[in-house]
Design brief:
Oligomer: single chain
CATH architecture of the largest domain: 3-Layer(aba) Sandwich
Radius of gyration: 20 Å
Shape: elongated
Strand order of the largest sheet: 7-6-5-10-8-11-9
CATH class of the largest domain: Alpha Beta
CATH topology of the largest domain: Alpha/beta knot
Low-confidence stretches: 1-11
Strand content: 15-25%
Number of helices: 8
Structural class: alpha/beta
Order of helices and strands: EHEHEHEEHEHEHEEEHEH
Number of strands: 11
Distance between the termini: 35 Å
Largest sheet: 7 strands, parallel
Length: 242
């Protein structure tokens, strides 16, 4: 599924092209074309048939919704992928499922972490916030271009899950198994719930392994982005020792 993107994000041309994204519009601050690299970038965008606009600093700040933005901003078309074909997954794959995540900052940070550990992709199940919102895109720090995103209804996800060949992992307070000591069966599907209620009963019921993140203090929960980062690094730990 592809639809027009509204948010503005900073452009890193080589990285974006490698990920298969092409800008629809490039906006740059008047007088900003000072280097050969910047000029080549503008020419490349023009050659690709995209619109290029030179604007004042005030207009650029308005578009970026922040003071002192970078000198160039671009608009891209969103990219989405389908639920993966389980039969074609590499054995060491880790896919992340986020259910009803509401905070765009959390979502963007999680996408950035998924990119950092080399996760295969992120499945947004239920009513998640828009990963292409300005706040989420900014929090990804460019990882929005690198991580495959799937949008699925809860019903479609639950219909697809039985095909998964490895562990379907959930973090719960009631779990007895420490997430650091579990012997996960790859490939792994990691499910993380919303910031408040956590996983719905429907998703919790399909987990083949429930683990907990121990806490020594008085609180009983972690920020969703932090908890997801801990789980992803644990799951991908062996492959990150390169």
């Amino acid at each position: 599924m592809t639809r027009t993107v509204k948010p503005i994000t900073s452009l890193t041309n080589d990285r974006v092209k490698a990920a298969g994204f092409s800008p629809q519009t490039l906006v740059y601050r008047a007088g900003a074309l000072e280097t050969d690299r910047q000029k080549r970038l503008v020419n490349a965008v023009l050659d690709g048939g995209a619109e290029v606009l030179e604007v004042s600093s005030a207009v650029l700040e308005k578009l970026a919704a922040k003071e002192n933005p970078q000198s160039m901003l671009a608009v891209f078309r969103q990219q989405w992928v389908d639920l993966p074909d389980v039969k074609e997954l590499p054995q060491k794959s880790v896919w992340l499922v986020l259910e009803d995540v509401r905070d765009p900052g959390n979502l963007g940070t999680i996408i950035r972490t998924a990119d950092a550990v080399g996760a295969s992709g992120v499945i947004l199940a239920g009513q998640c916030t828009d990963p292409y919102s300005r706040e989420s895109v900014r929090a990804t720090m460019g990882s929005i271009f690198n991580v495959p995103l799937v949008a699925a209804s809860r019903e479609a996800f639950l219909t697809w899950v039985p095909r998964w060949s490895g562990d379907v992992v959930a973090t719960t307070l009631a779990a007895r198994e420490d997430f650091r000591k579990a012997n996960y069966r790859m490939p792994v599907l990691l499910m993380m719930g919303s910031e408040g209620p956590g996983l719905s009963e429907a998703l919790a019921a399909i987990a083949t392994r429930n683990v907990k993140i121990p806490m020594a203090g008085k609180l009983d929960s972690l920020n969703l982005a932090v908890a997801t980062a801990l789980m992803l690094y644990q799951l991908r730990g062996a492959d990150l020792k390169l």
